[in-house]
Amino acid sequence: ALCQMQADYCRALSAYNKVLQQRNALLKTLRERGGNPEQLAFWDEQLVAQGSLITARRAAFISSLEEEANQRQQLLTGGSERLHLRYLPSLAAEPEEQALADLAEPEEAAWLREPSPVYLAAELAAVAETFQAQLAQLRRRELAAGMSLVGPHRDEVQFTAQGRDLRTYGSRGQQRTAALALKLAEVAVMQQALGAPPLLLLDDVMSELDRGRRALLSSALHGVQQAIVTTTDWGDFSPELRQAARCLHVDQGRIEELASRPSP
Asked: Which of 47, 110, 124, 138 is the most exposed place for a label (fewest CB within 10 A)?
Protein backbone atom coordinates (compact mmCIF):
# COMPACT_ATOMS: atom_id res chain seq x y z
CA ALA A 1 0.00 0.00 0.00
CA LEU A 2 2.80 2.41 0.86
CA CYS A 3 4.54 1.72 -2.45
CA GLN A 4 1.42 2.93 -4.25
CA MET A 5 1.38 6.18 -2.26
CA GLN A 6 5.02 7.07 -1.65
CA ALA A 7 7.60 6.72 -4.42
CA ASP A 8 10.56 7.28 -2.09
CA TYR A 9 9.34 4.49 0.20
CA CYS A 10 9.12 2.16 -2.80
CA ARG A 11 12.67 3.06 -3.88
CA ALA A 12 13.94 2.55 -0.33
CA LEU A 13 12.26 -0.86 -0.09
CA SER A 14 13.77 -1.98 -3.40
CA ALA A 15 17.22 -0.75 -2.38
CA TYR A 16 16.89 -2.36 1.05
CA ASN A 17 16.10 -5.77 -0.46
CA LYS A 18 19.17 -5.57 -2.68
CA VAL A 19 21.40 -4.54 0.23
CA LEU A 20 19.92 -7.30 2.37
CA GLN A 21 20.73 -9.88 -0.30
CA GLN A 22 24.35 -8.69 -0.53
CA ARG A 23 24.74 -8.51 3.23
CA ASN A 24 23.35 -12.01 3.74
CA ALA A 25 25.73 -13.35 1.07
CA LEU A 26 28.67 -11.77 2.92
CA LEU A 27 27.51 -13.10 6.29
CA LYS A 28 27.24 -16.60 4.82
CA THR A 29 30.73 -16.31 3.33
CA LEU A 30 32.17 -15.11 6.65
CA ARG A 31 30.52 -18.02 8.45
CA GLU A 32 31.73 -20.67 6.00
CA ARG A 33 35.14 -19.34 4.96
CA GLY A 34 36.07 -16.82 7.61
CA GLY A 35 37.40 -13.34 6.94
CA ASN A 36 37.29 -9.85 8.37
CA PRO A 37 33.88 -8.94 9.84
CA GLU A 38 34.71 -5.27 9.25
CA GLN A 39 33.65 -5.88 5.66
CA LEU A 40 30.10 -5.62 6.99
CA ALA A 41 30.49 -1.93 7.85
CA PHE A 42 29.58 -0.71 4.35
CA TRP A 43 26.50 -2.93 4.11
CA ASP A 44 25.47 -2.01 7.66
CA GLU A 45 25.48 1.66 6.69
CA GLN A 46 23.32 1.00 3.63
CA LEU A 47 20.96 -1.29 5.54
CA VAL A 48 20.42 1.34 8.24
CA ALA A 49 19.96 4.20 5.76
CA GLN A 50 17.25 2.45 3.77
CA GLY A 51 15.72 0.47 6.63
CA SER A 52 15.25 3.51 8.87
CA LEU A 53 13.04 5.27 6.33
CA ILE A 54 11.04 2.07 5.76
CA THR A 55 10.46 1.56 9.49
CA ALA A 56 9.46 5.18 10.16
CA ARG A 57 7.02 5.24 7.27
CA ARG A 58 5.45 1.94 8.31
CA ALA A 59 5.01 3.11 11.90
CA ALA A 60 3.18 6.26 10.77
CA PHE A 61 1.10 4.46 8.15
CA ILE A 62 -0.13 1.72 10.50
CA SER A 63 -0.95 4.35 13.11
CA SER A 64 -3.22 6.17 10.63
CA LEU A 65 -4.55 2.91 9.21
CA GLU A 66 -5.67 1.64 12.60
CA GLU A 67 -8.32 4.34 13.07
CA GLU A 68 -9.83 3.71 9.64
CA ALA A 69 -9.68 -0.09 10.04
CA ASN A 70 -11.35 0.05 13.44
CA GLN A 71 -14.22 2.12 12.05
CA ARG A 72 -14.78 -0.40 9.27
CA GLN A 73 -14.49 -3.37 11.62
CA GLN A 74 -17.28 -1.91 13.70
CA LEU A 75 -19.33 -1.31 10.56
CA LEU A 76 -18.82 -4.93 9.43
CA THR A 77 -19.70 -6.35 12.85
CA GLY A 78 -22.60 -4.10 13.75
CA GLY A 79 -20.48 -2.37 16.39
CA SER A 80 -19.68 -5.58 18.28
CA GLU A 81 -15.93 -5.70 17.59
CA ARG A 82 -13.10 -3.19 17.74
CA LEU A 83 -9.99 -3.85 15.67
CA HIS A 84 -6.53 -2.78 16.78
CA LEU A 85 -3.35 -2.89 14.71
CA ARG A 86 0.06 -2.94 16.32
CA TYR A 87 3.27 -2.55 14.39
CA LEU A 88 5.95 -4.96 15.63
CA PRO A 89 9.27 -3.82 14.16
CA SER A 90 12.15 -6.13 14.92
CA LEU A 91 14.08 -3.04 16.02
CA ALA A 92 11.87 -2.79 19.12
CA ALA A 93 12.84 -6.27 20.32
CA GLU A 94 15.46 -7.03 22.92
CA PRO A 95 18.71 -7.78 21.04
CA GLU A 96 19.07 -11.18 22.66
CA GLU A 97 15.41 -12.12 22.24
CA GLN A 98 14.21 -11.62 18.69
CA ALA A 99 11.10 -13.78 19.01
CA LEU A 100 7.92 -11.77 18.53
CA ALA A 101 6.48 -13.26 21.68
CA ASP A 102 9.21 -11.51 23.66
CA LEU A 103 8.71 -8.06 22.19
CA ALA A 104 8.55 -5.42 24.88
CA GLU A 105 6.08 -2.53 24.78
CA PRO A 106 7.87 0.14 22.71
CA GLU A 107 7.25 2.90 25.23
CA GLU A 108 10.84 4.13 25.02
CA ALA A 109 10.64 4.75 21.27
CA ALA A 110 8.94 8.07 20.52
CA TRP A 111 9.13 7.46 16.78
CA LEU A 112 7.06 4.30 17.23
CA ARG A 113 4.67 5.51 19.96
CA GLU A 114 3.67 8.79 18.30
CA PRO A 115 4.96 8.80 14.71
CA SER A 116 4.65 12.12 12.97
CA PRO A 117 3.03 12.37 9.53
CA VAL A 118 6.00 14.52 8.57
CA TYR A 119 9.20 12.51 8.59
CA LEU A 120 11.76 14.85 10.04
CA ALA A 121 15.49 14.12 10.08
CA ALA A 122 15.35 13.77 13.87
CA GLU A 123 12.80 10.94 13.62
CA LEU A 124 14.85 9.04 11.07
CA ALA A 125 17.97 9.61 13.17
CA ALA A 126 16.24 8.03 16.18
CA VAL A 127 15.30 4.95 14.15
CA ALA A 128 18.78 4.77 12.65
CA GLU A 129 20.39 4.94 16.08
CA THR A 130 18.25 2.06 17.33
CA PHE A 131 18.95 0.05 14.17
CA GLN A 132 22.71 0.59 14.38
CA ALA A 133 22.78 -0.44 18.04
CA GLN A 134 20.85 -3.62 17.27
CA LEU A 135 23.27 -4.58 14.50
CA ALA A 136 26.24 -4.08 16.82
CA GLN A 137 24.70 -6.16 19.60
CA LEU A 138 23.67 -8.94 17.24
CA ARG A 139 26.97 -9.15 15.34
CA ARG A 140 28.07 -12.50 16.80
CA ARG A 141 24.67 -14.10 16.32
CA GLU A 142 24.43 -12.90 12.72
CA LEU A 143 27.90 -14.24 11.92
CA ALA A 144 26.96 -17.58 13.45
CA ALA A 145 23.64 -17.71 11.62
CA GLY A 146 24.96 -16.42 8.30
CA MET A 147 21.99 -14.08 7.87
CA SER A 148 20.60 -10.69 8.93
CA LEU A 149 18.54 -11.04 12.10
CA VAL A 150 17.12 -7.55 12.45
CA GLY A 151 15.50 -5.07 10.09
CA PRO A 152 12.24 -4.36 8.25
CA HIS A 153 12.32 -7.79 6.58
CA ARG A 154 11.47 -9.26 10.00
CA ASP A 155 8.66 -6.85 10.89
CA GLU A 156 5.17 -8.01 11.73
CA VAL A 157 1.72 -6.49 12.28
CA GLN A 158 -0.48 -7.75 15.09
CA PHE A 159 -4.27 -7.74 14.71
CA THR A 160 -6.39 -7.90 17.86
CA ALA A 161 -10.14 -7.73 18.44
CA GLN A 162 -11.68 -7.72 21.89
CA GLY A 163 -8.20 -8.28 23.33
CA ARG A 164 -7.58 -11.48 21.32
CA ASP A 165 -4.82 -12.00 18.77
CA LEU A 166 -6.78 -12.79 15.61
CA ARG A 167 -3.93 -14.69 13.99
CA THR A 168 -3.87 -17.21 16.83
CA TYR A 169 -7.35 -17.12 18.34
CA GLY A 170 -9.62 -15.58 15.71
CA SER A 171 -12.16 -17.67 13.83
CA ARG A 172 -12.02 -17.80 10.03
CA GLY A 173 -14.97 -15.41 9.92
CA GLN A 174 -13.23 -12.95 12.27
CA GLN A 175 -10.00 -13.15 10.31
CA ARG A 176 -11.82 -12.60 7.03
CA THR A 177 -13.74 -9.64 8.48
CA ALA A 178 -10.53 -8.06 9.80
CA ALA A 179 -8.86 -8.52 6.39
CA LEU A 180 -11.83 -6.82 4.71
CA ALA A 181 -11.77 -3.98 7.25
CA LEU A 182 -8.07 -3.52 6.55
CA LYS A 183 -8.56 -3.42 2.77
CA LEU A 184 -11.41 -0.92 3.05
CA ALA A 185 -9.25 1.19 5.37
CA GLU A 186 -6.39 1.11 2.85
CA VAL A 187 -8.78 2.41 0.19
CA ALA A 188 -9.77 5.33 2.44
CA VAL A 189 -6.20 6.23 3.41
CA MET A 190 -4.96 5.96 -0.17
CA GLN A 191 -7.81 8.12 -1.46
CA GLN A 192 -6.98 10.78 1.13
CA ALA A 193 -3.30 10.69 0.20
CA LEU A 194 -3.66 10.53 -3.59
CA GLY A 195 -6.85 12.49 -4.10
CA ALA A 196 -8.24 9.73 -6.33
CA PRO A 197 -10.01 6.45 -5.51
CA PRO A 198 -7.92 3.30 -5.95
CA LEU A 199 -9.37 0.16 -7.50
CA LEU A 200 -10.44 -2.37 -4.84
CA LEU A 201 -10.21 -6.05 -5.81
CA LEU A 202 -12.06 -8.63 -3.70
CA ASP A 203 -12.10 -12.33 -4.57
CA ASP A 204 -15.05 -14.45 -3.36
CA VAL A 205 -15.35 -12.44 -0.15
CA MET A 206 -18.83 -13.66 0.79
CA SER A 207 -18.14 -17.39 0.99
CA GLU A 208 -16.86 -17.39 4.59
CA LEU A 209 -19.14 -14.71 6.04
CA ASP A 210 -22.47 -15.30 7.75
CA ARG A 211 -25.65 -13.66 6.49
CA GLY A 212 -25.36 -10.69 8.85
CA ARG A 213 -21.79 -9.85 7.85
CA ARG A 214 -22.66 -10.25 4.18
CA ALA A 215 -25.34 -7.60 4.54
CA LEU A 216 -22.96 -5.30 6.41
CA LEU A 217 -20.25 -5.75 3.77
CA SER A 218 -22.74 -4.96 0.99
CA SER A 219 -23.52 -1.73 2.84
CA ALA A 220 -19.83 -0.91 3.26
CA LEU A 221 -19.11 -1.46 -0.45
CA HIS A 222 -21.55 1.32 -1.32
CA GLY A 223 -18.93 3.79 -0.14
CA VAL A 224 -16.25 2.42 -2.50
CA GLN A 225 -16.07 4.24 -5.83
CA GLN A 226 -14.19 1.56 -7.79
CA ALA A 227 -14.34 -2.17 -7.03
CA ILE A 228 -14.21 -5.51 -8.80
CA VAL A 229 -15.74 -8.27 -6.69
CA THR A 230 -15.96 -11.92 -7.71
CA THR A 231 -18.66 -14.28 -6.48
CA THR A 232 -20.29 -17.60 -7.31
CA ASP A 233 -23.63 -16.46 -5.88
CA TRP A 234 -25.05 -13.15 -7.06
CA GLY A 235 -27.72 -13.39 -4.38
CA ASP A 236 -25.15 -12.93 -1.60
CA PHE A 237 -25.22 -9.19 -2.25
CA SER A 238 -27.94 -6.77 -1.24
CA PRO A 239 -30.57 -5.74 -3.83
CA GLU A 240 -29.31 -2.16 -3.62
CA LEU A 241 -25.74 -3.18 -4.44
CA ARG A 242 -26.84 -5.51 -7.22
CA GLN A 243 -28.86 -2.68 -8.75
CA ALA A 244 -25.88 -0.32 -8.70
CA ALA A 245 -23.36 -2.85 -9.99
CA ARG A 246 -22.54 -4.19 -13.43
CA CYS A 247 -22.65 -7.99 -13.59
CA LEU A 248 -20.08 -9.74 -15.80
CA HIS A 249 -20.64 -13.48 -16.22
CA VAL A 250 -17.61 -15.73 -16.79
CA ASP A 251 -18.23 -19.07 -18.47
CA GLN A 252 -15.49 -21.31 -19.89
CA GLY A 253 -13.08 -18.43 -20.30
CA ARG A 254 -15.63 -16.11 -21.92
CA ILE A 255 -16.88 -12.91 -20.29
CA GLU A 256 -20.24 -11.33 -21.10
CA GLU A 257 -22.15 -8.54 -19.45
CA LEU A 258 -25.65 -9.57 -18.49
CA ALA A 259 -28.16 -7.12 -19.93
CA SER A 260 -30.64 -7.86 -17.17
CA ARG A 261 -29.20 -8.43 -13.74
CA PRO A 262 -30.10 -11.89 -12.41
CA SER A 263 -32.36 -12.23 -9.44
CA PRO A 264 -30.97 -13.89 -6.30
From this structure: 110
* Cβ pair 165, 184 in contact under 8 A: no
- Residue-wise pLDDT tens digits, 25-35: 999 999 999 98
**What letter represents residue 232's amino acid?**
T
Residue 225 pLDDT: 86
CB 92 within 8 A of CB 105: no
Q: Mind listing the pLDDT tens digit for each residue in 70-105? A: 999 999 999 999 999 999 999 876 544 433 333 334
* Cβ neighbours of residue 252 closer than 8 Å, sequence gap 6 or more: none
The angle formed by the CA atoms of residues 258, 259 and 262, to the nearest 5 degrees, is: 60
What is the bridge-based pairing of β-strands 156-161 and 227-230? unpaired
Rg (CA), the chain: 22
pLDDT given for residue 208 in this prediction: 77
The whole-model pTM stands at 0.80
- Sign of torsion, CA 89 92 93 98? positive
What lies within 8 Å, CB to CB, of 154 at 6+ separation is 90, 98
